[in-house]
Design goal:
Strands 1-2-6-5-4-3 form a six-stranded mixed β-sheet, covered by helices on one side. With 178 residues, the chain is an alpha+beta fold. The N and C termini lie far apart (61 Å). The longest helix is centred in the N-terminal third of the chain and has 23 residues, at 4-26. It has two helices and six strands; from the N terminus they run αββαββββ. It is globular, with a radius of gyration of 23 Å. 17% of the residues lie in helices and 21% in strands. The chain has a domain at 75-170.
Length: 178
């Protein structure tokens, strides 16, 4: 038979874990609660929506420094097999990048474009979520000098060689080095 204090400690630890999980999973805010009768404060009128100029971009929407580009400043698109992605910058005239589609496999894209000037991979924060079996656990980036960059995301499950195009960055200023 187990010692009574060990059993009490284990029970208390399980109860605390259950309560903290419940608190985290609800994640509501005060405005979501039923007893909150206050209406949200009026928001100021927004400025007219114009093109967003992000880091590494100029006012014409061209990418002038591809290393500084951030997600959210390009055009969000839905591609092949419902993959969602982003296209940033203005295409270089005559570039094979114009034939790319969000959701293309890594093999298809590299087959179309040829070998990149530079390439590399990194894990994302999703790789560290316990029991996460979705996509985008790691990303693979390739660069093409004078044309731009491509980012591929891992597929769902345990298929580590299967990657799909999620971000196209058009940039004539690309130097080909990550």
């Amino acid at each position: 038979m187990k010692h009574p204090s060990t059993l009490m400690t284990l029970t208390a630890a399980l109860a605390a874990a259950a309560l903290s999980t419940a608190c985290v999973s609800t994640g509501g805010t005060k405005s979501d609660s039923a007893d909150s009768g206050a209406k949200p404060a009026a928001t100021a009128t927004a400025a007219p929506a114009g093109p967003k100029i992000g880091p590494g971009m100029n006012e014409r929407g061209e990418v002038i420094d591809p290393r500084k580009v951030e997600a959210g400043y390009g055009q969000t698109v839905k591609g092949i097999d419902d993959w969602e992605g982003e296209i940033t910058g203005k295409p270089v005239p005559g570039s094979k990048f114009n034939q790319l589609k969000i959701g293309m496999s890594h093999t298809q894209a590299i087959g179309l474009l040829g070998q990149p000037n530079d390439q590399g991979a990194h894990m994302t924060g999703k790789a560290w979520i316990p029991f996460y079996f979705g996509s985008d656990k790691y990303r693979y980036e390739v660069t093409y000098k004078g044309v731009g960059r491509l980012l591929f995301a891992s597929s769902a499950g345990f298929n580590f060689g299967d990657m799909h195009l999620i971000w196209i960055i058009h940039s004539a200023a690309e130097d080909g080095v990550r």
